[in-house]
Design goal:
- This protein has two domains: about 90 residues, Phage tail protein beta-alpha-beta fold (3-Layer(bab) Sandwich); about 625 residues, Maltoporin, Chain A, CATH 2.40.170.
- The chain is about 5% helix and about 55% strand.
- The chain is built from six helices and 45 strands.
- Strand 41 and strand 42 form a beta hairpin.
- Helix 2 packs antiparallel against helix 3.
Length: about 775
């Protein structure tokens, strides 16, 4: 279907949708709703539910224009104020004197007297957003949180490895509750991104996004609301950074990249901006990953957003994300080689509108265009050789409209729609040759070749609605999502996804929550398996999530939680994996490459988390996870390659004056391994390679100790920080996979050598210039 025809349909749907919206609806607001609006504007606000309760309504119509001033106006009648505790971060506390403003309304007479007096409130970073109006209990990181994690200064998405239920061996591509990153929806400013990483064909060692571009990163590992669709595993929602006034500019450098950024709001014009630029440093990754790969990857990245506020109730945004990578890598000894170029371009515009006090909308149009070219070679003695050429491109256009209607302080509705058109072009060629011993061992033909040209195209539509109701101690959100896809030349698919999120406050500081829902995932055109010349789209995947959790928050700055989850895929798309190794430049040329086609899959686990602020200078946290993730294949139940039954992560953060120190300890049970053995030749019989059951054994336990330190010097309107960090500081080998090598003798037909992740050091500086009005 032509793109112009798609957008004619999109425009018609959008006009109908706008006509159906109750434009004139207005209703009362609670103070918590006003604080939530402030949070959505990009300003972090922290408060105690003892101090700001759901029963507090806005006393009189708010006359201020900006969300910060509106929040101050809503809090003033209750003797509360916002106190700044950092850049765009505020805490709600009692005013130093009793206010003489508007009196407390009769319906709330006596309420303030029932609230326990709070002399002071301590602020500390929290990985969980509780009490912010989200029944789905997302885990949240601020840009400051990410910067404090060793190894994450230039690698924001890697911060997910700190969360319970996340399996990672140190790369950016983590597995969230058994789901690979291909099953995770990554959004920036509401725009869905496809593979937002650098070094895409080498474990995606570096994620997009300078932390200067991030205000907050919310991670939903289950039970995400209905406005998030198209992916079945999890959601990573990244909010761009903004400032309520003034500006901030930074320049920085590290062994990995040079970077510069600017964010701010104009003093005399209703305009705000965000621009970040990163460029790889020379020889940024001379030995990426395990140290046995040489090369000089280069990358350039820019992220930006301009925002214009023609009035206090409307805003226009123009955003972009551009990624450009050039890599040339080879192993030592030279057995694999890959030369690649990747380009990703995203441009979007959005319109935000507040209609009265209770209705908010956001309508967005996004365009994406990407290109991939790759040329790879494999030569392992007389055992295996091959060549691959891969040229890919895809483009998409999407329209999305989200609406939130606050019918009352305790009742709200979310509804919206989206439509998109995506097409992809694949040109792929592969030639392989294996020795007879290797071909027999791995069940491969000795010689094979594949040449394919694929041009899939998809038109997709979606609509959703959800209702959220809050009582004194109970909150419920019930929603339904509808998705439909039509592939050019194939029959269409439709999926209905009901979802429920519940939360019950057992006591003042005890919270019980749970969720259940269906999450569908249709195959995108850029995901077609070109290495097998896929000719028809897969049926949409379906995952059923069930979660039950309990959380405790103490005024003594302690929090802990327990969460039990189960995720079951009733329909799973085939995927490719490697029996022996994963650190390879040309995976489709390796003889151990296997196609896995599960009948169904499941992931289940128990997560424990705790956090404690010991003093204003010292904070600690710890997570423990028991988990199990398997595929049900025709031959029986097989562990997924990233199954880790037991995992522990913990950390300490200490700040005193100009000095800050952070440590992160990670341990997990070794990932599954496929056992194998080499048989020497005997009289009348050649040697052989004997492969055991796939993933029937395990590697040794994984352990890492990561360290970070920083020293900051403050000047009048700027500060200068120098930092250093070490990942895997003990240089523990942590073997993860096997590398197939050519035999140097006639006794063995092949040799395998364990691969591992090496210790890495980085050092850098950031010079930050500020003008906060």
């Amino acid at each position: 279907m032509a793109t112009s025809s798609v957008f004619r349909r999109i425009a018609g749907i959008a006009l109908l949708w706008a006509w159906l919206v109750p434009v004139g609806a207005q209703s009362g607001q609670s103070v918590i709703d006003v604080l939530a609006a402030l949070h959505r504007s990009g300003i972090d606000v922290i408060y105690s539910t003892d101090l700001v309760t759901p029963a507090m309504s806005v006393v009189s119509p708010l006359r201020s224009a900006g969300p910060l001033d509106r929040a101050r106006e809503a809090l003033a009648p209750y003797g509360l104020v916002l106190r700044s505790v950092g850049s765009d971060r505020y805490v709600v506390t009692r005013a130093p004197t009793v206010p003489t403003a508007a009196p407390t309304p009769p319906v709330l007479q006596g309420h303030a007297a029932m609230v326990p007096a709070i002399e002071e409130i301590s602020v500390y970073a929290s990985q969980y957003t509780l009490g912010a109006g989200e029944a789905g209990e997302p885990k949240s990181f601020s840009s400051a949180d990410i910067d404090r994690i060793p190894g994450d200064h230039d690698n924001a998405l890697r911060a997910t490895r700190m969360l319970p239920g996340v399996a990672s061996n140190g790369f950016s591509r983590a597995y969230i509750r058994g789901s690979p990153l291909e099953d995770v929806l990554v959004e920036f400013d509401g725009v869905a991104l496809s593979d937002p990483f650098h070094l895409k064909n080498f474990q995606s060692l570096l994620s997009a996004f300078d932390t200067a571009a991030i205000d907050r990163m919310d991670v939903y590992s289950a039970g995400f609301p209905v406005q998030y669709g198209t992916r079945s595993g999890a959601v990573i929602d990244i909010t761009p950074r903004t400032m309520s006034s003034g500006y901030e500019c930074t320049v920085g450098a590290s062994k990995l990249a040079y970077e510069a950024s600017s964010v701010g709001r104009a003093e005399h014009w209703p305009v705000e901006w965000l621009v970040t630029v990163r460029n790889s440093a020379p020889n940024a990754a001379e030995k990426p990953g395990n140290g046995r790969t040489l090369g000089a990857p280069e990358f350039t990245e820019t992220v930006g957003r301009l925002r214009w506020h023609p009035s206090s109730n409307a805003a226009w945004s123009l955003g972009w994300l551009l990624l450009d990578d050039r890599t040339s890598l080879a192993t030592v000894p030279v057995a694999e080689k890959s030369v690649a170029r990747y380009r990703d371009e995203y441009v979007w515009t959005a319109f935000d509108l507040n209609i009265g006090e209770g209705l908010h909308s956001r309508t967005m149009v996004a365009l994406a265009d990407a290109g991939r070219t790759r040329d790879g070679m494999l030569r392992i003695g007389g055992m295996a050789s091959g060549h691959v050429g891969d040229i890919r491109s895809f483009s998409s256009a999407a329209l999305r409209s989200d609406w939130t209607y606050e019918a009352s302080p305790r009742l709200s509705f979310d509804y919206g729609m989206e439509a998109s058109d995506t097409n992809a072009r694949f040109h792929y060629g592969r030639v392989q040759h294996f020795s007879q011993v290797i071909a027999t061992a791995f069940g491969q033909p000795p010689d094979s070749a594949l040449h394919s040209h694929i041009t899939p195209e998809e038109t997709a539509y979606a609509a959703w609605t959800a209702a959220r109701r809050r009582w004194a101690s109970f909150e419920a959100e019930i929603g339904m999502r509808f998705d439909a896809q039509k592939y050019e030349g194939f029959a269409g698919h439709q999926e209905w996804s009901p979802r429920i999120n519940l939360r019950y406050d057992i006591a003042t500081r005890w919270h019980l929550y749970g969720s259940w829902g269906h999450f569908s995932q249709a195959q995108r055109p850029e995901e077609w398996r070109v290495e097998e010349a896929q000719v028809a789209p897969d049926l949409p995947e379906l995952a059923i999530h069930s979660t039950l959790g309990v959380a405790y928050e103490s005024s003594a700055k302690t929090r802990f939680g327990l969460e039990v989850y189960r995720k079951r895929w009733t329909n799973v798309s085939p995927y490719y994996g490697d029996i022996l190794g994963t650190l390879t430049l040309v995976p489709e040329l390796m003889p151990d490459r296997v196609r896995v086609a599960p009948l169904d899959s499941r992931s289940e686990g128990v997560e424990l988390s705790a956090r404690r602020t010991f003093s204003p200078a010292l904070e600690g946290w710890a997570n423990y996870t028991w988990s199990h993730v398997v595929d049900d294949v025709p031959g029986g139940i097989v562990l997924r390659g990233w199954d880790q039954p037991h995992a522990v992560t913990s950390g300490l953060s200490w700040t005193q004056g100009r000095l800050a120190l952070e440590t992160v300890l990670g341990w997990h049970r070794g990932w599954p391994r496929t056992p194998f053995a080499f048989g020497p030749p005997r009289p009348g019989a050649p040697g052989g390679v004997f492969i055991g059951g796939r993933n029937s054994s395990r590697w040794g336990n994984y352990f890492t100790l990561d360290l970070r330190s920083s020293w900051t010097i403050a000047f009048g309107h700027s500060d200068f920080s120098i930092w250093a960090e070490a990942t895997n500081s003990t240089n523990r080998s942590n073997p993860c996979c096997d590398r197939l090598l050519a035999s140097q003798t006639t006794l063995d037909p092949a040799v395998a050598q364990p691969d591992s992740i090496r210790r890495a050091f980085d050092i850098g500086f950031v010079w930050r210039f500020r003008d906060h009005r």
